From TrEMBL, chains A, B, C, D:
Span of domain Acyl-CoA dehydrogenase/oxidase C-terminal: 246-398
Key words, A-Z: FAD, Flavoprotein, Oxidoreductase
Record's subunit section: Homodimer.
Domain Acyl-CoA oxidase/dehydrogenase middle: 133-234
Database matches in SUPFAM superfamilies: Acyl-CoA dehydrogenase C-terminal domain-like (SSF47203), Acyl-CoA dehydrogenase NM domain-like (SSF56645)
Source species: Algoriphagus taiwanensis
Keyword Oxidoreductase: yes
Pfam families: Acyl-CoA_dh_1, Acyl-CoA_dh_M, Acyl-CoA_dh_N
Family: Belongs to the acyl-CoA dehydrogenase family.
The keyword Secreted is annotated on this UniProt entry: no
Protein name per Swiss-Prot or TrEMBL: Acyl-CoA dehydrogenase
Length: 407, 407, 407, 407
């Protein structure tokens, strides 16, 4: 895992790398990604693993990891640039083994895992031999208020006894382990110090995958799914605790910081591909002979506004990544909230305009637009609904005015 | 079919009827409709047909038809009021046998069908014994410019030979016949007089249902599907022509007029149910104990704006229906364009807000919101994209300024 | 004052009346209104009073008053239709003596004034011999929370001693009296029963007009002004109290109900004229020879959206007026909030689009658009900011859900 | 004039400079700028000139000029940073002698002026001894299509004879000379090679300042005004031609490139100050005791959205300035269009929200918000309406798709 702010990759090397990633994505992923997302996903696994091997051979695999871990040692900002390119295909991050939730779990275990956790779980994860998931959100409690957790992990001797109900445990289907957020210290004075993170192997008899939740018309499977799961008297060794008891939220914050950069750059990649599809359609669809849709001013407006908004998104995310790299995640909390709601909104607007330009074709599954329209609608909800980020950004800004008034 | 502007139903009888429809929909349809749309649709057909029998028994079946035809003889405006209530459930119009495309075909055959067409097709359709579809849109040509049609019907002796490729032929799967729009008079001077409408039984060997198009993640089946179909040397008796040769567009216009009223009222029904779900969720979901989402001003804004926009929609559609009833479809072309883009936009905004209020639940298929978010996205596209209606409304308005300037 | 729900004016007479008002406004007011608003207003008073005489001669004066009071006896709904026409000119309501704040004061005194108040103040006001104003908003306290009032009226013997600071006392400059809202019963248990309304003649030595507030670049004068005023040991006879002590808010609510209908219809009138200017400009301004702005799809979109939004506004306001006429102001509180924020928003959007279509000309004072852009910006603020109305509408709706949950 | 891409000012020196500018603007301009814009402007000239002297003494005057010309030698990007700070006060750029239209004329004469033009006009302009203006827009022809010009300059011997009608000649009142755009070569094959730029001293008897156009309620005067002017048989020496005949548009493009950067950064400065006023008001205005407006989520939304949009604006403008500095104005035409419409829109949205947060106070002239609401409305119109920039951006983007399709 590369968390360094210096990189073995120079700017001009990065430019060459970006071209290679772009070539790989356009040549090898674009031709198949629509079929893959139509599924069934598992039937494509051999093909996807073969692409992973090609990525390794070309020295492009796991760009976020340090060279020692089999990666390229990119900084956060450099990886962000790669991430936008990978994001243009719904299978981009998966093929290069830097997809959520695995990448977040890799970052977490890299920073806070014990030596044994690293050798058992992190190593195979980094090599792409296994997959993982992250069980945090609970169906009965608002995810936007993370101190509300009903799942408990009670220390009994050398074990933790876990009980609870989670959902939106992304990609649990087919994963080897999950990291679960559970209350271990209900009596802690601060609600932010009550929960801990624990590793649970999914073959544990106390773990139940209830269903892949049907989301926007599809339950999906394997990597492309979101599970509802239960922990019922699920026992794990105490050594499966990550970090210290009560550190759950602190670790989650660490995990979310770069995670939002990753999401935002992936969204920008999607927006760029939708934009490209919109332009191609505008040029090729003729209303009358020689009269392409592109001549319509409304469509020109959408193209111009989309270009402006995508550009604004990219500059803001890269600016935030630079600051985070330099000053840490805490220093850029306002920026993180800003890009979360700004880019999610831009993403959905661009997808919506691209659909409208495609007309009836846009609502079929014959293009990727339908997939994104459905599967990225969650972008305005997960990792904190936009409304929560707006409020917290505003409150943070206004706090400085409070200080001025009081000072 | 009731096309009269007088109705056997008095205002106070209508109020009672509306209550009965509301009761039926809430008591008998709400409990099952989410399951029905999850499908498979065919497995629910026995249950749905039993509901139709109940509707008949209660004197509520086919409200749009004249009493002689087994209906209630409602006027367009009265039916619009019923239609809003039925629209609150995705199976409402189906159960009462007034769903598109059947209702449009009933209107068409009622007004322009020959005696033989009426007895063969219209009768069983009105009784709900068979289903029908309407093949107009073509994949290679913009539906927004209806004079572009590649499908041809060539008169050969006592037959028409039909060849062509259509899609978005709603509910073709399981239907007994389609009405197809095809060019019969390519040499006609006006492009609006080149096409005709013909009846094609779907067991005709020249008809091929290629696929139920996967739309927004679902191909669906039976009534809940949109087919891609081909006519390959498909021969039908000349007597299957509806009206005269070259009347295709004129008839389509007649069909679309009330059709848009029906759609808009159905959309308002959906919006009302989504609104209701949004309010209930806002009241029941607590962010903290005793702190429901409803206390958040952003959510209050969405509720207030949705209420205003739905009310505006209803008043405009009813106003248009009244004028259409009185003055005919041609006289309200501007109003029809207005409600088409205004209500479609309101519908999608209300659904989107309701989803956001539901958070993660909103993107699952555990509520109807996901179904509507996906299946009503087309509302801004079919029957003419909103952009086309805006331009044509504006041009019509500006034409009157031209006259003033010239006069 | 006509508060009856029956009118001496039949529907067909109303149609004729509306034509007469339209003719008067277009022929006599449109040619001069731009000059009048450029001012100085007082220099136009003789001309405006002459127009009032013509209105009287033609039987069009004071349409809101009963025939006995010199008016036409129109119902609220009928007057609303007239009001839209008058609103197309910034001097329309003034000429016909039905402009705010006079019309509100007439309604108030008609319903709650004593015989002596009626003969002294109401009579001359109805005849247009004097003008009045209404002093409610205070600079230091939020107008959106009307129970906050710092102005006091202390009963001393047969007099009230008034002290306080008000602003946005519209048209105080040149008025003969004001109605002032002041706290008379600070100890009342309900904050809604602490204030009263009193009549203060403006030649009272305790009344000071501090300034006509410069608003959006103009202080204005006379009817076209908004004053900052002070009451300094201002004594009035106890008989100047309107109604009972503590009834201030109850009366204000009565005054605001129809007041918002009046405002909304006036706004719709403005929107219609701005719309008309936009269309004319679009047809006459050529980007290239024979290529008018009207051919641009963006401008077509604005025209179509404006037409839809104005139509929605009108239907909602008339619907609200009908219900208010039938059921009273209290029964339509939700509707009143709805039209307040909906129509104010539409008004500003239509004006803004019309300006943009006019280009550089649109920001000059060479058209009325600049006047409305500036002087109607307050529409989203006065009579309760839009945000307050949205919240109160939503809370009222959600209350019914509370009841269901509890029931 | 500094057009170099290298600067004598290092990054750390720039930081210090920015602090100095910020201090100057906040300490010396904020206390008086509201009064100055209320005017009359001329009465403040002595005070403003004294501030200029202070700026010179502090080494802050004319930051855009090279050290030899009495400036600081800042690059375009460095000046952009300063410009944002100056923009926070409506008199900032004037005091530092870098306000439009003077700055554009300085750039033009610096690059294309003859030695004699430089000594006669540029020198005094750079020192702030005289003012200038720029006469391009014509009332009868759309400014958005600059090849339409009716003003002519006919060569007669050693003179040009100029005739024409212009408006929006900013700051003509009190200026010593104008640069006028006039057709000299009507027969040129390209419409872009027909016009030229000429210097006209304003004491020329053929020049007439018809009026300072009343704009949004104010005609203004001197620097704060926009004139309508006429050239009637106005003769100037042929040596007053700038550059070559027919170069008018080429020069105008050069002038507009950096000009849009300047405008955009000034707009961002305004938006920042309006944002600051909005936050302060939100914290200080209490709806109830201890319940500031800031607690309202709607206001939090506005603050968060404004912060995001301003940040996006700044990053895009600085990015464009960097590219322009490196690659020239032509290479960034798409970016220039992008920032023009994006930032103008953000500016007006932020001002509008700030007004709404101020309530009634926001529409008075007691804060700067009213000034900006009125005087910056033109931002969406001048230098090309937003709609034109959107279309031209889209067409430029789509052209690359054309090439792909053809290649």
């Amino acid at each position: 895992m590369s968390t360094s702010t210096t990189s073995p990759v120079t700017p001009s090397e990065l430019s060459q790398l970006l071209e290679k990633y772009r070539g790989f994505v356009e040549d090898k992923l674009f031709p198949i990604d629509l079929d893959v997302v139509k599924g069934p996903f598992r039937s494509f696994l051999p093909q996807l693993h073969s692409l992973r091997e090609q990525a390794k051979t070309m020295g492009l695999f796991a760009p976020h990891l340090s060279p020692e871990e089999g990666g390229l040692g990119l900084t956060l900002v450099q990886f962000a640039r790669v991430s936008e390119i990978l994001g243009q295909s719904p299978i981009g991050h998966f093929v290069f083994n830097c997809a959520a939730p695995d990448i977040g779990n890799m970052e977490l275990l890299h920073m806070f895992g014990s030596a044994s956790q690293k050798s058992t779980w992190l190593g195979p994860l980094q090599k792409g031999e296994i997959r993982s998931c992250f069980a945090m959100t609970e169906p009965q409690l608002p995810g936007s208020n993370p101190v509300h957790l009903a799942t408990t992990a009670v220390r009994e001797g050398n074990e933790y006894l876990i009980n609870g109900h989670k959902w939106f445990t992304t990609a649990a289907d087919g994963a080897q382990f999950t990291i679960v957020m559970a209350v271990t210290n209900p009596e802690a004075s601060s609600p932010y110090q009550r929960a801990s993170m624990l590793i649970v192997p999914l073959d544990n008899p106390g773990f139940k995958l209830i269903r892949n939740i049907p989301i926007m018309g599809e339950a999906g499977e394997d990597y492309l799914s979101h599970a509802e799961v239960k922990f019922e008297n699920c026992r794990v060794p105490a050594s499966n605790l990550i970090g210290e008891e009560g550190q759950g939220f602190a670790l989650a914050q660490e995990r979310l910081g770069p995670g939002r950069i990753h999401h935002c750059m992936r969204w920008i990649g999607i927006a760029e591909r939708a934009f490209d599809m919109m332009c191609k359609r505008a040029m090729s669809r003729e209303l009358d002979i020689g009269k392409p849709l592109a001549e319509k001013q409304t469509i020109q407006n959408w193209i111009a506004e989309s270009r402006a908004e995508i550009k604004a998104s990219r500059l803001m995310v890269l600016d935030t990544a630079e600051k985070m790299q330099e000053l840490g995640a805490k220093a850029v909390r306002e920026d993180i909230s800003t890009i979360k709601f700004f880019v999610a909104d831009v993403l959905m607007k661009v997808i919506d305009r691209a659909i409208q330009v495609h007309g009836a074709l846009g609502i079929t599954d014959d293009t990727l637009l339908s997939f994104w329209y459905r599967h990225e609608r969650g972008a305005r909800i997960y990792d904190g609904p936009d409304e929560v980020h707006k409020s917290s950004l505003a409150k943070s800004i206004l706090k400085s005015y409070q200080k001025k008034a009081n000072g």
